Every structure is written in C-alpha cells, then in structure tokens.
UniProtKB/TrEMBL annotation:
Domain NAD-dependent epimerase/dehydratase: 13-92
Protein name: NAD-dependent epimerase/dehydratase domain-containing protein
Species assigned in the record: Armillaria borealis
Organismal lineage: Eukaryota, Fungi, Dikarya, Basidiomycota, Agaricomycotina
GO CC annotation, single: cytoplasm
Signal peptide as annotated in the record: none
A GO term for molecular function: aldehyde dehydrogenase (NAD+) activity
SUPFAM superfamilies: NAD(P)-binding Rossmann-fold domains
Record-linked Pfam families: Epimerase
Length: 238
C-alpha cells in the first residue's frame, strides 16, 4: 500500500459528487493500489466509511474548495490530481495549478498529471431557447478545439484556459487533460478512467490537444426536444 504523496497517489477533489462517486469506484476496481487522497467537507466516521467502501486505499483530508493552502499542498505532493468538483470554482483551480507547478519544479522531466472535468457549456451559442437555423450552427470538434475561439462569456473558460496554458508551457509543465461531458452521467466515469489509463501509459493527448468531448454516437437532438422529453417524464412521475 502506498502512502500519501508517493508515486502512486491521486489527489481527488469532488469524489463524493455524482460523477466522482462512480469514478472513485472505478479507480478502486481498476487501480486499487493507488492511494487516493480525498478532499471532504465532512470527515465524520460514517462519511469516511461510505467513501472507503468505494476504494480500498483512501486517505481522507478534511477541507473544502475554499481551502487554498490544503489544495495547493496536496497538489504539490501527488503526481496525479483529479477534479470532478465544481467546474467553475476558479480559486480552487488556481490553487491546484499552483501546487502542480511546484510539483513539476521538484520533478524535472516527470511532470504531474491533472485531469479536470469541465462541460460543453463552453460551446454555448446563448440562444436562450430561441430557434436557430441549423445552417447557422457552428460545428465543433475536440480534435481542433481552441478554447480562445469560444465565446469568452461562456461558463468554464475562466478555469479551462489557464489549465491548457499550464499544459502547454515548457517550464514546470503539467500534463493536463480536460473532459467535456455533454451531461453528467455515470458513464462519464468510464471516459475519465480510459483517458487516465492512457495518460499513465503515455498514450493520451495532453495540453492543447488534451481536450476530450464526452458524448455518444447517437444523432444530435435539439436541446428543446431533450428538455421537453425530460419534462414529460417528470410530469408523469409527479
């Protein structure tokens, strides 16, 4: 069993959220020897027990996303950081990047890994429910995505752009990967795990190329149609 801060340690923010729970469970199944340092608001015995059921090798650190010193400290110690917490909490991302920069400086030639879960809100056309001519819809792909081409008022970019910058600089670089799920679902955990494994094998795209849309092979449907279907189901349930 590894100890916190060793080469097989993962600092995990957001492991008790919907996506985080599924990803932590997947890590416990596929990477059980990795020590996961989990940041938790509630470090009660019952909470620790429920988290430990998901992964056999968890160390609980009490704190919140506002605890900059704690986040920076553990990001500087662990070679892998995963963030499935708030996509728009810039202070915690800033603290994470500061810690990772220190980590990289101490390990020249062996930069740390940072996996951050964002969202496809970066691509919003801000139509606010109005009808849009399909001919005027811009098609995006993660293979040629430049975050600075997105509407700067869109969500997530305040954090995402500095993450990519950290992943593309030459001094004290960080191996960054950003996941962009269309919806928060448990199968997004599989996508995160797949990319993380590829990174551990040295086969993942990183930095400016490490931007991953998480979707499906199903045909696109308008958000209005999707929201209407969800509303109909909820009305039946209620």
């Amino acid at each position: 069993m590894s100890t916190p801060g060793e080469s097989s340690s993962i600092f995990f923010l957001g492991c008790t959220g919907f996506l985080g729970v599924h990803l932590l469970k997947s890590l416990g199944r596929d990477l059980p020897t990795y020590n996961v340092i989990a940041l938790l608001r509630d470090s009660s015995a019952s909470r620790k027990a429920s988290v430990s059921e998901l992964h056999p090798n968890v160390t609980i650190i009490e704190g919140t996303l506002d605890d900059d010193a704690i986040i920076e400290e553990w990001s500087s110690k662990c070679p892998i950081v995963i963030n499935t917490a708030s996509s728009d909490h810039w202070p915690s991302v800033r603290s994470t990047l500061a810690g990772l920069e220190k980590n990289s400086a101490r390990h020249p030639g062996n930069p740390p890994i940072y996996m951050h879960v964002s969202g496809l809100g970066i691509l919003s056309d801000n139509c606010r429910g109005e009808s849009v001519d399909p001919a005027n819809i811009r098609w995006w792909t993660d293979t040629s995505l430049n975050l600075r081409d997105c509407d700067p008022s869109n969500m997530h970019l305040e954090s995402d752009i500095p993450i990519v910058d950290a992943g593309t600089r030459t001094q004290n670089a960080v191996r960054t990967m950003i996941m962009f799920p269309g919806r928060t679902k448990d199968n997004n955990a599989y996508s995160c795990l797949t990319v993380l494994k590829a990174a551990l094998d040295g086969k993942a795209q990183e930095g400016a190329e490490g931007l991953y849309f998480v979707g499906s092979d199903q045909p696109m449907i308008p958000m209005h149609e999707w929201a209407s279907a969800v509303g109909d189901v909820r009305m039946k349930v209620l």
